[in-house]
């Protein structure tokens, strides 16, 4: 593709041997363009660096600039003192402008310039709870439960009764325990007292009715499966690739200890955040810009390390990440650090690239 007519055709295989390459082939291999040794001047690198994500406030107007395509799949952290403009740059300028541009809508007037090359989607992930009720679980959220229910419906026992996958859901009348309607517990409304929650006396918390619990796959009832933790389930369902594939990312973001049937509203903010990321790790993230606002808030230092590992997985999948945070471990892991400041309020509004790991 990068073949240029008249550029050393016919004779040698390598028209322009790079300096220091002892006649060997290009280590990068492939048939990419051989445009000769590109000038990798430091000065040029410096100039480009200023064009990466940066924010400058001029009379209330912002320049917001995103990494270009050659800089996709990098982690950029935005730090700085309170009031220095982190939120104003990322959440109030960059995100609304990028969303408007991608949707073809009028862009906010205070953003004077926006370079969005290579970005086709903006994803904001927060640490808010997943699901409003106890019916959302890691199994349902990851998509694994659909495949698990199909396995149960494919059993000889279920096929004889013409049971469909929906039969193996605690959300359907066919599947759920009639007493607790699939919740596994009962909320007792006692006047003048806080509600009391007790285990359902009919299903003992299994959430399903007896007819459904008579079906076993690999020796397990559907309730047994929901009692497995993610790590064990990945092993048990190794021979059922769709199930294992849906659960593997959940394990990889460090949530292997969660039970498949654990209600997601009971997860911590950090767990919810990682489960949301895991649900996206199943597909390519090329062109996706992820924005996290203080994702380490409330996290144990070990969880911060896990989160950094999860960010690496997102980057490997092709995502571009911008994170507002001040956790030193997270900042140290960033490819670029934008330090907003120098102070808060009127002293703020300037973004400077102070770190470049590359
Ligand atoms: Zn019940």
Task: Characterise this structure.
The chain has two domains: 168 residues, Rossmann fold, CATH 3.40.50; 128 residues, ABC transporter ATPase like fold (Up-down Bundle). The radius of gyration is 27 Å and the shape is elongated. A hairpin with a 7-residue loop joins strand 6 and strand 7. 32% of the residues lie in helices and 16% in strands. The two termini are 28 Å apart. The relative contact order is 0.16. The protein has a six-stranded mixed beta sheet, sandwiched between helices. The chain is of the alpha/beta class. The site of zinc ion has 7 residues, from loops.
Short description:
The chain is α/β, with parallel strands linked by helices and 358 residues long. The chain has twelve helices and eleven strands.
Topology (elements, then pairings):
Layout: H1 42-51, E1 54-58, E2 61-65, E3 75-79, H2 86-103, E4 111-115, E5 121-124, H3 138-142, H4 144-153, H5 156-160, E6 185-188, E7 196-199, H6 210-213, H7 222-227, H8 230-236, H9 241-255, H10 269-280, E8 288-293, H11 301-316, E9 320-324, H12 328-333, E10 336-341, E11 350-356
Parallel strand pairs: 2-4, 3-9, 3-10, 5-8, 8-9
Antiparallel strand pairs: 1-2, 6-7, 10-11
The structure holds zinc ion.
């Amino acid at each position: 593709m990068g073949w240029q007519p008249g550029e050393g055709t016919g004779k040698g295989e390598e028209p322009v041997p790079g300096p220091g390459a002892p006649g060997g082939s290009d280590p990068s291999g492939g048939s990419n363009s051989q445009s000769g040794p590109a000038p990798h001047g430091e000065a040029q690198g410096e100039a480009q660096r200023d064009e990466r994500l940066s924010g400058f406030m001029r009379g209330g107007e912002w320049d917001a600039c995103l990494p270009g395509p050659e800089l996709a799949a990098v982690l950029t952290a935005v730090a700085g003192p309170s009031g220095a403009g982190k939120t104003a740059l990322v959440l109030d300028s960059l995100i609304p402008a990028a969303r408007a541009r991608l949707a073809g809508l009028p862009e906010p007037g205070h953003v004077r310039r926006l370079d969005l090359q290579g970005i086709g989607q903006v994803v904001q992930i927060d640490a808010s709870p997943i699901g409003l009720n106890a019916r959302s679980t890691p199994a349902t959220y990851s998509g694994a439960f659909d495949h698990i229910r199909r396995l149960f419906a494919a059993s000889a026992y279920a096929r004889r009764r013409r049971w469909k996958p929906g039969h193996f859901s605690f959300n359907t009348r066919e599947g759920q325990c009639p007493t607790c309607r699939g919740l596994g517990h009962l909320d007792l409304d006692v006047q003048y007292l806080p509600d009391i929650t007790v285990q359902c006396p009919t299903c003992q918390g299994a959430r399903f009715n007896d007819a459904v619990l008579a079906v076993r796959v690999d020796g397990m009832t559907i309730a047994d499966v929901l009692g497995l933790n993610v790590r064990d389930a990945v092993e048990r369902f190794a021979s059922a690739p769709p199930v294992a594939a849906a659960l593997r990312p959940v394990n990889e973001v460090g949530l292997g200890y969660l039970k498949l049937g654990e209600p997601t509203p009971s997860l911590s903010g950090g767990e919810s955040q990682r489960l949301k990321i895991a649900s996206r790790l199943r597909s390519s993230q090329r062109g996706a810009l992820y924005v996290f606002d203080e994702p380490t808030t409330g996290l144990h230092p070990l969880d911060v390390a896990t989160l950094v590992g999860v960010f690496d997985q997102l980057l490997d999948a092709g995502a571009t990440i911008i994170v507002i945070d001040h956790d030193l471990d997270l900042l140290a892991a960033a490819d670029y650090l934008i330090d907003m400041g120098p102070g808060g309020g009127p002293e703020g509004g300037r973004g400077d690239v102070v770190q470049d790991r590359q």
